[in-house]
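debug: dumping io for the single-chain case to check the tokenizer round-trip. Nothing else runs in this session.
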Amino acid sequence: MDEEVGRPAVVQELISNDVIQECLRKHAGRNIVETSPLDELLFEPATRKVEGSTSSVYRFKVGYRPEGKNVVQAKSFMLKRLPQSAVQQEIVQTAGLFRREVFFYDQVLPYMKSIGGKRMSPPVPEGYHAVSNDEENLIVMEDPFDEGFQPPKFPMSNSELLEHSLMVMRKLGQLHAFSYGAERTMTKRSRGWLGIEPSLEQDLLLYETAEGEDRPPSHAYGMLLSSINLALDLAGEISERATAAASSGELAGILQGAWSMVCQMVRIDPKASNVLCHGDCWMNNVIFRYSKTGGKETLVDAKFLDFQLCRYGHPCLDIVYFLFLSTSKTVRKRYMNELLLAYYNALVDTLTFLGKGSPPITLAELRHDIMFKYKAFGVIMAFVVKPMMSLDPEFIASRETQNGEVEEGEEPVKLDSYSLMKEYYETNPSYKKALVEILEEVFELLIPHSAP
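debug: decoded output
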């Protein structure tokens, strides 16, 4: 449930006047002599598309007058803080998700911006304040919605999906170029991004725990178990080979082993062309801007949101994650070369513009690594997370209501994700079609062809 906003006491809990002053100074580039009082600021929860389970997101607008100016101006910001649910807070804090995004906005983004100067900026909202400690967990950035950006609109036709996917691939090429370029300005002694943030050695969600290890089991592993149950239940609707593997118990073992496979793939290979990856690069973590001419909308720009899972690793991890979570099998089959070329051309052009040399990987090497090394990562991650992530939020909310009202002070009932996915599969044709497509690719990849 969203927090009540608008009352001074609540606003004081969200953000202090000192932080607002700091953000305005960074935005205006000069001291601020006058601002709106906190109790006059208009705070509102962000849209459902931005509001996630791992953070609470607000928008607010401030009136201010910079030093040397007579006119009061207005600036809109977006604010992210820890989720309000105690259960969600525990997940986020234990996994280190919010701290990882603070690291991105506090250290990575300024480094990237320094190599672009005023000529070019990374495709990310400007950051003004980011801190995570015992006293404060807060990120303040520019409000991209005030600049005309908006979440993607679903459903999309294949042509619309291709148009948006090409834009994302170009922007991903830019983002990776800024990462490569920034790291090339660092001394060898600093060890690059890993030297700045050693925790990048550990993935926040994709890992296995050994007996006696202090690290708690990954929360993403629970999503895998729900997806496995669904796959076993629906194997009979995919193929005879899948049915036989499910009946023999072979399929369950194979799918359990898939977790080890993806955990191995995200481990840093010191010999690879590593980059600071977004880590959760799919369509819902991208916002788009359009221009309108003669009543027709044209896609002109995009920016990435939500860097809570940013990781250091092979660039293909971001590429295949996006392709398998956000595009259709038809689009990938017909336009894979075009999509990879959009990424690579943007990577080359951005590095050239920044004066940071050539990519450490050729287009041929990129294609090879995707098809023969990292395709499995995209397929398995789509299998693990897409069934739950693709559920309609209104459908989930309606099931929460059916589970009964939550008494004051209690946490909402944790719904069984397998039951939700199964019910939605049986009632929503588009979800069923997408899920069958995922399962077909998983079975094709993982089930030995020698099975009956």
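debug: round-trip ok. The mean pLDDT is 88.
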